[in-house]
Amino acid sequence: MHDLSTRVLAKDVRALARAMRLIDDRAGAYLEILKDLFHRTGNAFVVGVTGNPGAGKSTLCDRLIEDLRAQGKTVGVIAVDPTSPFSGGAILGDRIRMGRHTTDPGVFIRSVATRGHLGGLSRSARDMVRVLDAYGVDVVLVETVGVGQDELEITRTAHTTLVVVAPGMGDEIQAIKAGILECADVFAVNKADRDGADGAVRDLELMIALGNDTMISASKVRGHVVHARTLKVGSAAAGETDDAATGETRWTPPILRCIATRNQGPVEIVRALFEHRAWLEGTEAGRARRKARLAEELRDGLREALIEVATRSLASELENAVRAVDAKELDPYTASEKLIEEFRRGGQ
Amino acid sequence: MHDLSTRVLAKDVRALARAMRLIDDRAGAYLEILKDLFHRTGNAFVVGVTGNPGAGKSTLCDRLIEDLRAQGKTVGVIAVDPTSPFSGGAILGDRIRMGRHTTDPGVFIRSVATRGHLGGLSRSARDMVRVLDAYGVDVVLVETVGVGQDELEITRTAHTTLVVVAPGMGDEIQAIKAGILECADVFAVNKADRDGADGAVRDLELMIALGNDTMISASKVRGHVVHARTLKVGSAAAGETDDAATGETRWTPPILRCIATRNQGPVEIVRALFEHRAWLEGTEAGRARRKARLAEELRDGLREALIEVATRSLASELENAVRAVDAKELDPYTASEKLIEEFRRGGQ
């Protein structure tokens, strides 16, 4: 076992920081460390926190950390930052706000920079979560900056995903992208004292009732399909519901109002997150979901590793292929096939 | 040679439609057809048209088609549609507007549905362009719905990319995502009679002058770095400029005002597009760019084909790996390595 791995498992916080840096940079013995630590993972509860910029995610995370700490739980935070150096301002501000927890030895905060590469980022986040998990952190929050496709991808690394929305930011729900319903396990309507909070809750209820994973606003839908709501919204109130079709308990995301700045609601949100965890662990559907996520992770990991290995070992062949295709001596489809054959032959 | 390929090359329009459908569906003999036709491609001028929804892309495309037809050129259009069935309304409207060209035997319009899969979509678009090219179409317009990462990816399949912006849609430039400057060869400021057109032009000039490929608004930048503009914007006026550092002619995207609904500007835009084509073909830098794009395409194609082949041939091994990782008998990193070894051994 690598020395850093041993020290991480012995709860050496400086080793933890170093291991995480290596993993984020994919440098040094990072892979060996990940392999070492994997067998000691599986205890941490990983919560993804996503939502539009300005929804108040960081303030809410701050409050969630407070509540978790009050319960005696240690907390890790992976904050996924965008690349743009210009938008760094707001994000930095958030980090500073959360920074008051940095003096708490039970809280570990680490930023991951968006590298423009989707797969790389969610892999990086997932690997860093693993290190925190092996180190012995009870809960890991993976906080993203927005709700784009990249962020949704990242939330797939979590057991449970909290989606934070706020009223009064234009048509908030409209900005929620395709895939959000698939990934949301708990909704928090933050800034719930503002105008439009009721509307936001209703829109979410409707979205859930429709089970509709679209890019458009629920309020837009409302004009067309009022009936669906009256038919179904009652069953979409909160938590577990009985799915008559499958006989399986199904999870319906609860919608919780909160005012993070006044510390109203975080306790209930934490409770809902743990209820979802219990659902994941206690039901067949929950276990199936965990396994499906693992399969997905393996497929993703295989895909990335495959591309890495192939691009490395085929560098010169690829160059020759470009020349041949450019000269129209070869078509790009046959070129791909030949390169793959070459790659597989190279394995001997 | 496949029968459909022969018929496409013999300018059978029904064979063309069928071949394109097969390719979009990746069905039947699509790969054989692509291989057949590749050697007859390379004559069409492929123009990507991108910009925010509402910028007036479809109306402008309509006008560009008109102008190209007036010059006696045949035109193909690949319209990349989003998946969402709900937003279909507006897009359908656009198609209908452009639909008046469908009675013109010199215009070929084909929609490609966004399938939620990035690579697949740009590959599909690229392959369909190839068929139109082999068929003998002079110009292919690849029109996307928005300016997201997916759309930018798609414009990379084009020789020349036209980015359409419009004033008065909030902070239009702000919405232009990372990567836009890298892909934009010609800018059209549509609805140029509206308030804010001058501002949009200035923002674009500044963005170009800064050479700054960021997600933020040029007007936001303006507050901080006014100097950069006064220093450089003069050289960013239009078309080819002399890059003193390399001695190579460099392309600076011209910014053209237009009012598509009144047919003002399309002629100049078409001219600018062809000027860019001449630059691509006539300069070392242009040729280098074409080759770099080809290399990129081959890498992408290899990547996709590799994943397809590997996922197919490793299906059962992958399932076993998921079971082993779930049972913590194996870590996911070693699992990937073993699967790749397995894949390469399977090539024999």
What does this protein look like?
The structure is a homodimer of 348-residue chains. With 348 residues, the first copy, chain A, is of the alpha/beta class. Chain A has 15 helices and 9 strands. In chain A, helix 5 links the parallel strand 2 and strand 3. Chain A starts with a helix and ends with a helix. The relative contact order of chain A is 0.11. About 14% of the residues of chain A have low confidence. At the A-B interface, helix 3, helix 13, helix 14 and helix 15 of A face helix 3, helix 13, helix 14 and helix 15 of B.
Kindly, what is the distance between the CA atoms of the first and last residues of chain A, rounded to a whole number of angstroms?
29 Å
Q: Characterize the overall form of chain A.
A: globular
> What's the story with the biggest beta sheet of chain A?
7 strands, parallel
Beta-strand residue fraction of chain A? 5-15%
Give the assembly state of these chains: homodimer
Number of discrete helical segments of chain A: 15
**Overall average pLDDT of chain A:** 79
Tally the beta strands of chain A.
9
Strand order of the largest sheet of chain A: 3-2-4-1-5-6-9
Summarize the structure.
Two copies of one chain form a homodimer. Chain A has helices at 3-9, 13-25, 30-38, 57-70, 88-98, 118-135, 149-155, 180-183, 197-210, 218-224, 226-232, 266-282, 284-313, 315-326, 332-345; strands at residues 45-50, 75-81, 107-113, 139-143, 160-165, 186-189, 239-242, 249-252, 255-257.
Write the topology of this structure.
The structure is a homodimer of 348-residue chains.
Chain A: H1 3-9, H2 13-25, H3 30-38, E1 45-50, H4 57-70, E2 75-81, H5 88-98, E3 107-113, H6 118-135, E4 139-143, H7 149-155, E5 160-165, H8 180-183, E6 186-189, H9 197-210, H10 218-224, H11 226-232, E7 239-242, E8 249-252, E9 255-257, H12 266-282, H13 284-313, H14 315-326, H15 332-345
Parallel strand pairs in A: 1-4, 1-5, 2-3, 2-4, 5-6, 6-9
Antiparallel strand pairs in A: 7-8
